[in-house]
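To illustrate the input format used throughout this study, we show a single complete record. The first block contains the structure-token representation of the backbone; no residue identities are included at this stage. The design step must infer an amino acid for every position from geometry alone.
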């Protein structure tokens, strides 16, 4: 049995849920560029994945919605390296990082307001600028 891929502590992914296809990649490759399919195309069916809870599915769907296909698949292309295995690992690493980033709790923004002194400085600067421009006018 293959080991599960850890996304976050307590959240892991079965490697069997990820499908790879390979194609000829663009860019440099030497003599093998037209003979060897080194580009890795990773396809992950997010909606059908049993690795996540319903709440996690909703979060992932909302945060990764624009990256999903109509069927709910997440598709990543990796052609950075000249070797198929390294491109495969690169695509897998990017998938795990993407899922971890989407599942990580987002920081809540604290509302702040400028201090009284900051407001005074801003208005004083505007007044000075206006005065400078007023002095440039012809009388």
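Output of the design step:
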């Amino acid at each position: 049995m293959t080991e599960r891929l850890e996304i976050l502590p307590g959240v892991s992914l079965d490697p069997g849920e990820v499908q790879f296809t390979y194609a000829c990649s663009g860019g440099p490759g030497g003599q093998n560029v037209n003979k060897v399919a080194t580009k890795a195309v990773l396809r992950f069916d997010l909606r059908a994945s049993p690795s996540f809870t319903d709440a996690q599915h909703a979060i992932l769907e909302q945060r990764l919605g624009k990256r999903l296909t109509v069927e709910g698949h997440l598709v990543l292309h990796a052609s950075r390296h000249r070797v198929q295995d390294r491109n495969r690992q690169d695509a897998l690493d990017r998938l795990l990082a993407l899922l971890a980033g989407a599942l990580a709790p987002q920081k809540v923004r604290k509302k702040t307001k400028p201090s009284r002194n900051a407001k005074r400085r801003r208005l004083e600067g505007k007044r000075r600028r206006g005065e400078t421009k007023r002095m440039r006018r012809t009388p």
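Structural context for interpreting the output: The longest helix spans residues 116-136. Helices lie at 54-63, 84-103, 116-136.
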